[in-house]
Amino acid sequence: MEALRGSAVLETKDHSLDLELAVVWPGLSRVEITGALGIRLGMLVWNEDWLQVFLPRDNVVYRIPAVEMEKNSPRRARFLEQVPFPLFPEAYFDSLLTRVGVRSRFEKDLECRFVEEERAYRARFTTRQGGRMVWIDPTSFAPQRVLYFDKQQKLPELHAPVESMRPVLEARYSDFQGEGLATLPAQLVLFSAGQKQLSFFWKTAEVWNTIRKESFKWQPGASISVKEF
User: Fold this and answer.
1) Residue 118: what are its φ and ψ, rounded to 5°?
2) φ, ψ for residue 99 (rounded to 5)?
3) Is 37 exposed, middle or buried (CB count within 10 Å of its CB: 0-12, 13-18, 19+)?
4) Of 31, 51, 81, 21, nearest to 202 (Cα)?
5) Buried b (16+ CB within 10 A) or exposed e, 8-34
6) Which helix (H) or strand (E) holds 20?
7) What is the largest CA-CA distance in the chain?
8) Domains of the chain, start order
9) pLDDT for 69-93, tens place per residue?
10) CA-CA distance, 116 to 121, in Å (whole number)?
11) Shortest CA distance to 188 belongs to which of 116, 107, 94?
């Protein structure tokens, strides 16, 4: 397993949120969400059983079976409306862990070549959800840009012009920290349908080698209302 934990800032067009988070591949995450003046706004807990979002203001937990997050369904869409920030399940783990998105998520048909005019490797591969097109820095091998395509789309050919591609999501990375294979991007910007959805910036981050799985096991108290999707 691979994991990162630390603090971050997430910005949308409407909000700026402070996050304390841990992200583990595959499929574990916990996020504490605070707003202005340190007011606690919520918590997200994602494990192999559930994705749960706790909103203290309403004293309510919204939850959905974790397996449902792999399905692009009305049920999932209704749940995501309750999350206090934009959440894109297809990109959540690999966009935050970055190298996992390049190294571990492909399943077959991997193609890769160096594109001189882009000064980057371009990789193309299929996944259960559809496919990816990834631009990789030739020195650190960290991802610079990732385009996400769903099953309803034909995955573009490796040599296709970028301007002809119509991904459902795009992740762009910048502000790279560290050296060589230890390089990680501190800044992530996500786009959907060509429109910026959010920016994410790691303020502090560390590789988490002693993962405590119990951190991702959380049960709401008896006084908390639970709404299941």
Assistant:
1) -95, -10
2) -65, -30
3) exposed
4) 21
5) bebeeeeeebbbbbbbbbebbbbbbbe
6) strand 16-25
7) 60
8) 2-228 (2.50.20.10)
9) 988 899 999 999 988 888 999 888 8
10) 9
11) 94
* Angle of CA points 206, 31, 107, to nearest 5°: 70
Tokens 């762009």 belong to 172
**Which tokens is 193 given?**
């349908």
CA distance 180 to 188: 19
Q: What is the pLDDT of residues 172-205, one digit of tens each?
A: 999 988 877 678 899 999 999 889 999 999 999 8
Assessment of whether the complete model's pTM goes beyond 0.85: yes
Structure tokens at 131: 């496919």
Angle at 169 between CA 165 and CA 170, to 5 degrees: 75
* 49 residue type, one letter: D
- Size of the chain in residues: 229
**110 and 123 Cβ atoms separated by less than 8 Å:** yes
Those residues with Cβ within 8 angstroms of residue 161's Cβ, 6 or more apart along the chain or in another chain: none
